[in-house]
UniProtKB/TrEMBL annotation:
Name of one Pfam family that matches: CMD
Domain (Carboxymuconolactone decarboxylase-like): residue spans on this chain: 16-96
Name of the protein described by the UniProt record: Carboxymuconolactone decarboxylase family protein
Entry superkingdom: Bacteria
Molecular function in Gene Ontology: peroxiredoxin activity
InterPro entries reported in the protein's UniProt record: AhpD-like, AhpD_core, CMD-like
Amino acid sequence: MNPRYDLFENPFSAKFLKYVFAASKVFFADSPLPVTTRELVSLRTSQINGCGTCIDMHTKEAAHAGESALRLHLVGAWREAMVFTDAERAALELAEQGTRIADAAGGVSDEVWANAAKYYDEEQLAALVSLIAFMNTVNRINVISQQPAGDYQVGQLDPTT
């Protein structure tokens, strides 16, 4: 696949992405979420949106952070997989409903929110909501502009470096 344009060479896109990536620093520097949860949610959101670029990135980042290949392979089937904690399941369900807002007239159900609130405090819930929104933004940019996947290097887009 050939990208429709170079995200980092196009002047407008590069300027916009500068701000987007600046906002993402909070996930790396100050996130109250465990790295594992952050990467699983990012991966699942990207799978739903069909963003190969982000699937590539978050699979590699999660593996680098110590995530097992088994768990990474099972993220798409998290409901049936016995390898995720109840807290991780709650975060993945929140990510799914938050990503598929158009598929559910009411958005994220009260039941899903209450389940997530059993495992995450308000600060962590705010981080989850922000991460889901962020991932949906970058997924859409990549999918619409047809960014290719496969050549991501761990740490390549770390905004703290």
